[in-house]
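User: For a benchmark we're assembling, each entry needs the component sequences followed by a predicted structure for the full assembly. Here are entry 17's components. Please fill in the structure.
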Amino acid sequence: MPQMNSAGEDDLGASDEMISFKDEGDQEEKIRESAFTERDLADLKSSLVNESEVSSHPRVPESHPEAMRRTQDAQLVYQDKLTDHMEDGVKHQDEGMYKGSGYPSYPFLMLSDPYLSNGSVSALSSKVPVVQPSHGVHPLIPYNNESFSHGSHSTHLPADLNQKQGVHRPAQTADIPTFYPLPSGGVGQISPSVGWFPHPLMLSPSMHTTGIPHPAIIPHSGNKDIDCYERNMKPHSEPKREREPKKPTIKKPLNAFMLYMKEMRAKVIAECTLKESAAINQILGRRWHALSREEQSKYYELARKERQLHMQLYPGWSARDNYGKRKRRTREKHQDSSSDPGSPKKCRARFGLNQQTDWCGPCRRKKKCIRYLQGEGRCGSPVSSDGSAIDSPPSPLNSRHSMPSSAYPTAKLSSPADSVQSAQSCSPSSSSSTVRSSLISPGYKGAFLSQTVNASENS
DNA sequence: TTTCCTTTGAAGCGA
DNA sequence: TCGCTTCAAAGGAAA
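Assistant: Structure for entry 17:
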């Protein structure tokens, strides 16, 4: 990822030294965005209060057209503002980046979502992961005023769906079909009986037509596969079974790479005829590194906006809230060798802060020490000129951590041509992923993935 | 039915 | 501050 070191030179290694949108110290932008966030969020909440007041009662009686009009106005105002905001954020994006791709998957251009083409049918009839179309429709986007003009589509969903999901849906507001749980202490003035308000990211045509909650919020059962939309629809196919209402889970906002993956996955699948997500993700990871700084920055910017919106909508939410919901064995798998008293010292401990020139590349980038790993005999792979591992086979336990991203021979660091080539091809570079996967362990799934990828490459 | 794989980035937490 | 862990998406494969 593009970044600048202290000398102003490019240092594309570690993510934590990359362009950080975390602080986004850009005061001007902060001011501009906070202007949106505070004012518009207030508008949003206000409009929702109005709406909730309306909907929690016998809605807005038709005998009160003025009240109805105000409610709708509030929604329209929010939609307009949100649209403006989003457009503002997207305006400067390179249109050519997506328009020629032929993939409707990019958030801002995902209008050919099956959700849209035929209402909500596809969402109910096909295997649609969670609440998003499988081909990468992201909620942060398609703001199509037209979509808000025909709210009746939401009626595709059975009337009892939202009750079972704990989603309160005022009949009057088909334009805002779903509601989210209020953040604790977020909007105190809204009555608990309402308890839901629309995530701006969700105000997309797809959401509009399907009435599906924003992906950031799904009933959570502890398993991602179970937590899919299809699964959530089960009560309809199994009406007899009483399902306990599950607490909606607020998902983490997607980071830049995740957004990139969502957009490009379909493309890679089409090009490479791969279906294995693991293999596809390897390719996507390489392509990500092959992206130009500008291209990546778009995704970082998009991710930043997502995080901001997420923070504003769920101020009390923490990523920690979702910890433990996926049963991963990483803790078991990641037997940190640092606990081994006989393990070699890392560069920091070995050379000290005053001799950072002797550190390996990852250590200089505040990543995991590869010398340390080599000392463990776990990866004796060569080290690039800057000390980065070139084709280090990862620990079978977790390739990510023994092979940090910064250690990859990114296109900009060590071998741009090779990396770009591999990134453009339908396989991870032979110098890393394939080899790594093959070396992980006999019979290890990674080997299968390598074969899959290699087969795809050969084809 | 559940977990794994695989990627990068963000965030949380303990030391 | 650093290092580690977990989760976010995806869907086929394996247990």
